[in-house]
Fold:
Amino acid sequence: MIEVRRHNAGFCQPCFLKHCRDQVSRAIEEFEMFGPDDRVLVAVSGGKDSLALWDILLDLGYQVDGLYLGLGIGEYSGSSGTYARQYAARRCAPLIEVDIPSEFGFDIPTGARAAKRVPCSACGLSKRHLFNQSAVDGGYDVVATGHNLDDEAAVLFGNVLRWETAYLGRQAPVLPAAPGFARKVKPLVRMGERETAAYCVLSGIDYIVEECPMAVGNKHLGYKDALNQIEVQSPGTKAAFYFSFLDRVSPLFTGIAEEERQGLQPCAGCGSPTTGEWCAFCKLVAKASGAPLGGAAGGTTGAGVAP
Ligand code: SF4
Structure:
């Protein structure tokens, strides 16, 4: 029996797997994420969330391929890539691969040091850029990521603590397409991370269990811990916090995010939409490689596809 305290319910194995698929279907429909004719690119890290998402979307019959980014984080990247490839082979599903060290000449820890950023900041901006670029280059309509309810509630908590109004305006389960941007969606917002882990175990999906070594001391994990303590006392608080924000508060901030989007122009290096002359990813590549802006290696997502 799998208990989901938030729903005050317990499920046997087949009912739990159906419950997970239903939660994803409901999120896709409720937030109008995509339809059966859309081509979806799901960002897979080899972890439980992204593999559960890929599995559920395939089972629901969507046209969905995987995208794996090699971050160059030692053994962690080696293992996570193996899990992503194993899953793709098991489902005979196409997996696009972009390897940052071989295509752009730096790994995340080195790039972060060179750019004087914390690793998760360098990693996050690289992911956002390359997920979008890969989708645009590959003609995909939508990029789907495995952010779950725990992730979204923790990000919201952090943004509220600092009243980051532009981030609050962008924190939605769907970010619409715009020139140079594919639509971004988070179909797991109705599932907690215990549920995605249970889904993988019950479906026989192997995933990387180790946390990324760069996550140590990450504020996001601290926010998750704080919310987990509240959730133990009061099940359902995380979902109420997040979904009430979407219903009642988020519309107050969307104008700020919209204004930001309207001020975008093509990056002088890669053509991606950005607020300045050069996008943050081109600046990171230049700093990491020591080459002048516009003269650094990379700039394509000439990715391998398997199988
Ligand atoms: Fe990237 Fe940080 Fe996540 Fe590691 S913990 S994969 S560095 S965002």
Q: What stands out?
A: The first strand starts at residue 2 and ends at 4. The pocket of iron/sulfur cluster is lined by residues 108, 119-120, 123-124, 212, 214-215 (CB under 6 Å). Confidence is low (pLDDT under 50) at residues 299-304. The chain is about 50% helix and 15% strand.
